[in-house]
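Hi V.,

Quick status before I head out on leave. The structure for the redesign project is tokenized and pasted below; the design run finished overnight.
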């Protein structure tokens, strides 16, 4: 297939571009490099540009008849979305609608959307399936849910079919050490812990140790980046088989506590580092774990790298590389 990957210079997008290319597909990356890195696009064609630019989109779609578009170009920081909601509604919602309109003008009918577990808001159960109530509590989650809702209307009006994949916590890195997580600033737990192990960070804080969990720290569902990539391609293949639009939750289906992740990281890296207990953060639920039964049954998807130590080992190779080149 000829595929356009929007946001293909970012963490998830760059791994997706490599995966698609290795599977024999022709990939074009479009990225404005606001948070991504051009040197992460090691496969296919790269175009620097923004999905807010309708003229640029029309030129891109005129030059290549794409079979589908994959979207990874959203802003993702929950805290920032509360402080600057306009940024999130403009990029995550308005700019995505601009992209969809360009697809409609050029007859591209298949869309894979990188959504989020944040659309569910405060969990009403430990295991979250697709039927869980959708009550996002921040502009980030709201903007993603709005896109999901808009996609339903675009299908009715324009026969544009979509699959929305709701991630929980993407983690890990390319198994060959070629790609990995490079956010600036970094806010995700596993890379923060590994930065402490490598000496690039002084301390790790555990926000809350009195939750109703086995060890008192928050429990989260970590899914390996390569397992995410396989789910995306399976979803696109299913869409091409005439399945119609779908929505799936993606996770390992088992959670790990913050303390478990820290202890596993110390084991993998053979490094000790300072850990501080801090107060809970507002809005942090005790447990967030995906029920991915539907994705497994519909797509035949099965995570290959579900073991926490495997996820950490792959991410550690990447962290040591970043340590050697001076970080981000």
């Amino acid at each position: 297939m000829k595929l356009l990957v929007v946001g293909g210079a970012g963490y998830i997008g760059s791994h997706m571009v490599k995966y698609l290319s290795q599977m024999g597909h022709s990939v074009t990356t479009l990225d404005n490099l606001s948070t991504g890195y051009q040197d992460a696009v090691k496969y296919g064609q790269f175009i620097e540009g923004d999905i807010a630019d309708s003229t640029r989109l029309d030129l891109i779609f005129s030059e290549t008849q794409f079979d589908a578009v994959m979207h990874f170009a959203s802003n993702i920081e929950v805290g920032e979305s509360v402080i600057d909601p306009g940024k999130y509604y403009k990029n995550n919602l308005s700019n995505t609608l601009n992209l969809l309109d360009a697809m409609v003008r050029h007859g591209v009918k298949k869309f894979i959307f990188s959504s989020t577990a944040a659309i569910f808001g405060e969990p009403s159960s430990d295991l979250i399936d697709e039927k869980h109530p959708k009550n996002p509590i921040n502009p980030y989650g709201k903007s993603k849910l709005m896109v999901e809702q808009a996609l339903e209307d675009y299908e009715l009006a324009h026969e544009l079919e979509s699959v929305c994949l709701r991630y929980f916590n993407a983690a890990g890195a390319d198994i060959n050490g070629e790609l990995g997580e490079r956010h600036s600033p970094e806010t995700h737990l596993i890379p923060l812990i590994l930065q402490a192990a490598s000496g690039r960070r002084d301390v790790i804080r555990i926000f809350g140790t009195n939750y109703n969990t086995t060890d008192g720290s928050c429990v989260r569902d970590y899914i390996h980046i390569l397992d995410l990539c396989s789910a995306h391609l399976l979803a696109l293949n299913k869409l091409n088989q005439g399945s119609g639009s779908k929505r799936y939750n993606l996770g390992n289906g088992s959670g790990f506590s913050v303390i478990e992740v820290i202890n596993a990281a110390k084991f993998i890296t053979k490094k000790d580092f300072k850990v501080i207990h801090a107060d809970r953060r507002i809005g942090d639920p005790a447990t967030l774990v995906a029920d991915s039964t539907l994705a497994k049954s519909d797509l035949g998807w099965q995570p290959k790298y579900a073991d926490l130590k495997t996820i950490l080992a792959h991410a550690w190779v990447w962290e040591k590389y970043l340590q050697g080149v001076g970080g981000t």
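Above is the designed sequence. The CA atoms of residues 123 and 244 lie 28 Å apart.

G. will cover questions while I'm gone.

Best,
W.
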